[in-house]
Design goal:
Largest sheet: 4 strands, parallel
Mean pLDDT: 86
Distance between the termini: 36 Å
Number of domains: 1
Order of helices and strands: HHHHEHHHHEEEEEEEEEEEEEEEH
Strand content: 15-25%
Radius of gyration: 19 Å
Helix content: 25-40%
Oligomer: single chain
Structural class: alpha/beta
Number of strands: 16
Length: 250
């Protein structure tokens, strides 16, 4: 499943500061705060299904609790992406797109807080990749996820066939930056990994990182946003110079 190179870092029109209901800071903050409580509400519902008496139909309740744990979040994520356009590129923090991304991030936060939940899925070959596809990720055949792999923004991942993630890899398709004017922006872009590539152990891949087919990256690699790796080296692109000036600062 080949990947196409990213020509430039887009500033999507949908993320521009256009007057919308979310421009009223009170509404935007209320929405953000509401989704901040989603992880604990999610756990509360599961606890009720499992622990509250009477303990009748326990098998059915356990199945329902498992579905609530693993299937409800990707379903809500797809609903959020359908309701709010979340483009890739530079997104102002006071835009509708940012609020939509924040909601998307919160519904999957429980799996980042408790990585053991995802490790449980990885015991069954192919099950974890199937589960990621429910979030909207594109995952090829025979992907190997070593222990400790942690993925944020599961909807923004494009992985080819026969890819290996070594132990402890961090996949983070978003980065928050501060522009030269002092504004904060979200850099959000899918991470793309070509067929038969291997990601070295304990690496950090950030937004827009591309690893071509058959590439093998070193361990402890830190990949800045929109980096392309070829023959073990970072390939710089002129069109990315502006964003590199903001993200490559010490």
């Amino acid at each position: 499943m080949p990947i196409e190179p990213t020509a430039q870092i887009p500033t999507p029109p949908a993320a521009e500061k256009i007057p919308t209901p979310f421009e009223a800071q009170g509404i935007a903050r209320a929405v953000l705060l509401f989704f901040n409580f989603f992880p604990i509400l999610h756990l509360f519902v599961i606890a009720i299904l499992v622990l509250c008496p009477p303990h009748k139909l326990m098998l059915f309740r356990l199945i329902l609790a498992g579905g609530t744990l693993y299937l409800l979040p990707p379903f809500l994520a797809q609903m959020i992406r359908y309701s709010v356009k979340i483009p890739e590129g530079r997104i102002p923090v006071n835009s509708n797109a940012f609020v939509g991304w924040w909601a998307l991030f919160q519904v999957q936060l429980i799996f980042s807080r408790w990585p053991a939940l995802e490790e449980t899925l990885r015991f069954v070959p192919g099950l974890y990749s199937l589960w990621l596809r429910l979030w909207g990720a594109q995952i090829g055949r025979l992907t190997y996820w070593a222990p400790g792999t942690l993925i944020l923004d599961r909807s923004f991942l494009n992985v080819g066939d026969n890819v290996i993630f070594a132990a402890g890899v961090r996949v983070n398709p978003h980065v928050l930056i501060k522009t030269e004017t002092g504004d904060r922006e979200l850099l959000l872009a899918a991470i793309k990994i070509g067929d038969r590539a291997q990601v070295g152990g304990y690496s950090l891949l950030t937004s827009g990182t591309e690893i071509p087919a058959d590439e093998v990256t070193r361990a402890f690699l830190i990949s800045p946003p929109f980096s392309v790796w070829k023959d073990g080296k970072r390939v710089r692109r002129p069109e990315n110079a502006e964003i590199e000036s903001l993200t490559d600062k010490p």
